[in-house]
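Researcher: Please generate the 3D structure of the following complex. Treat every line as part of one assembly.
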Amino acid sequence: MSGSRNGVPVKPSRKSARSEEAAAKLKAAGLRPTRQRLALAQLLGAEHRHVTAEALHEEAKRAGVPVSLATVYNTLHQFTHAGLLNQVVVDSQRSYFDTNTGSHQHFFCEENGELIDIPGDTVQVSKVPPPPKGMAVDRVDVVIRIRRG
Amino acid sequence: MSGSRNGVPVKPSRKSARSEEAAAKLKAAGLRPTRQRLALAQLLGAEHRHVTAEALHEEAKRAGVPVSLATVYNTLHQFTHAGLLNQVVVDSQRSYFDTNTGSHQHFFCEENGELIDIPGDTVQVSKVPPPPKGMAVDRVDVVIRIRRG
DNA sequence: CCTCATATTAGAATTATTCTAACTTGGTTG
DNA sequence: CAACCAAGTTAGAATAATTCTAATATGAGG
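Model: Done. Output below.
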């Protein structure tokens, strides 16, 4: 068995620019660049995206990446702690992860559960009051809920 | 068996101002003023509150109100549709219901899950972009996440 | 190559919520 | 009042998202 490992087809030698980049990011975050973390990082890496754990798991399976749902959850949380992803809370059931870690806001369509980015310099929030004693503001989330109409 | 019905102690004749008020609200919303809806409305009615279904169910049980968790969920959703409550999405696991239906915002303490009201005329949100074609803004949610620090 | 701390995994467990199908009840009508 | 029935309530099962567990695999260093 060569050119393959653990049942996964693997390009023998050369690594893509994408995977090099992903490996560097992981290392910088203190995460071992394992097969599944690299694969997930690449799936997430290209364009700004909003994913759920289930959706990413599906996508990975379709791409032939052998990864369990538990690992997808672990990885999404690790990436979030490392600052590579943002968790967006818009639905009290599902969790979305956003590859755009810059400060920005979202439209959220309640009908189809779709998230749409709003550039960070668009919405202005002012007169935010000081938090209670001993507390510090972590971040300010703005979600604009929309529906057909 | 008198002065009691279905195991619940009931003040025989006179109705409190609170319960009259609650009954009126329910009727206005097109909801039949049943025993459990009235009881829940009264538990919610006094002061502005943030409750979860579980918490309200506990509270009702402690108050000797015979109500199932399913009914608490049904009732919270009916009240929300009727505009008597607002559902606040801050946690992707739990749902909070807010008796303050006016436009206002919240501090959310990630450490203890507590919600704190911010008066509606405090935070200013401006430059909200127009929603995509065919969509209308339902509401704009602002959540200020805080932690010890 | 060996080792071992770190990762991954399948499947069970947990949690919040919704569903189902049977049983009440409140409001009406004769 | 007595019976009726649509609307409401219920216990418990079902679902869905997520986390946990305990066993196995793997990557990096010696």
